Each structure stands twice: as structure tokens, then as C-alpha cells.
Amino acid sequence: MQSVSAEDLELHPPAYPWEHNGLLSTFDHASIRRGHQVYQQVCSACHSMELIAYRNLVGVCYNEDEAKELAAEQMFEDGPDDAGNMFKRPGKLADYFPKPFPNEEAARAANGGAYPPDLSLIVKARHGREDYIFSILTGYCDAPAGVELRDGLYFNPYFSGQAIGMAPPLYNEQIEFEDGTPASVSQMAKDVVTFLTWAAEPEHDDRKRMGMKSIVLLSFVAAGLWYYKRHKWTVLKNRVIQYKP
User: Fold this and answer.
1) Gene3D superfamilies of this UniProt entry (predicted)?
2) Residues comprising the binding site for heme c?
3) Where are the domains of the chain?
4) Binding site members
5) What is the pLDDT of residues 85-111, one digit of tens each?
């Protein structure tokens, strides 16, 4: 009987048509807002986002008042006070997203030895970027015949080694989107990947906007230089040099 190796089962994620990857395309900010909702209600139980503060959400997917309300729902340790004691206070816009675990050891203990990575830059940190993350979230399936998994592991053909310690995080109608969008697995995966892509590249839209402004400006400069060159060289090009014996 022919043996089956893990490499034979590993799949490369397909290329999906992400709207924000177009030359002139920007992020779908409604999708970013839904993606934050998915992260907040599903992913944040295990995964941190240490580089994102609540103020970063203002003007992207929430207004200032909404972002303040989100921050105030969390309690943060602060201090010391006048008596030298630490205390808890509601969150502020300047606070970063809270960590689900106090340290790596606690995170591993709560997840069967697996360490949930921080998601702030996860899109940039993985080959395949958005396609890989989306495929991982939607690629869970039953292990093929002949493949045995240890307890606490799940089969995912897009994950390196195919045995992943994270249980399938998404299922249909798991949450209720504020805008009424049906919460299918693929929709939630698409939205949370869009949110994570924005988190990894929050300057994405501004960079493209500045790039287009630079192209337009340089086009006018190039046209002016071309006209100036033609004007200055017209006299020289039209001169006739005569050699007298």
C-alpha cells in the first residue's frame, strides 16, 4: 500500500479577487467594520492585536463616539494611584486592544500547547497573505483516509502539516452583523481578512491617494518641461549653418 505524506496533501491557497488590490481600489470600509465585529466577537477570545489602538478605528470603520463606546466596554489596569495601588478603569481611545491572556504560557495552557499568534501583522507575516488566511478559515474538512490526528488537532489542507490546533472558528449565522449582511462562513472570513489586511497596512488608502496625486502632478511637470524644451530648442533646430570658403 502506498504511503501518504503530509506534503502530498498540502494545498496552496487559490488567488481571490480582493477589491482593495486593484491599482485604484481602496478598502471596503463597511467590510472592515464587519470584520472588526468578527474579530471582537470570535477571534479576540484567543488572538491579540497589540499594535492596534481604538483611536485607529476612528474615521475608518467607526466615528469618534462609537470608538469611545467600544473602548469603554473594556477595563484596563492603570496606576498607581496616590496610595500606590493599581486600579481598573474603562478604556480610552489611546488604549490598545486588550490581550486575551496575560502571557504566552497562559495562552499555551488554555489552547492545548498551541500559541495563538498576534494578528496585527498576520497578513504580512504569511505567504499568500489574504488568500492564505481566508483559505485557512474556510478550509476545514474531514481528514482523508489513512491520516490520523492527535486529540485536539483538526485537519486543514492549507495549513503547513495539515494538523492545526485551532478549532474551526466560524460557522453560519454565528454573529449578527449590524448592517444586516448574512453572516455566512465565507462572508465572515472575507470581512475579517479585510479587517486584518487594513490592520497590517492602515496607510493603504492614503498611499494610493498620494500616488495618484503624484502621478497627476508629475504629468503636468513633464508636459511643461517638454513645452519648454521645444520652445528653447526651436531656434537652434531651425538655424542653417553656412560655411563660406
Assistant:
1) Cytochrome c-like domain, Cytochrome c1, transmembrane anchor, C-terminal
2) 43, 46-47, 166
3) 7-52+96-202, 204-245
4) 43, 46-47, 166
5) 888 999 999 999 999 999 999 999 998
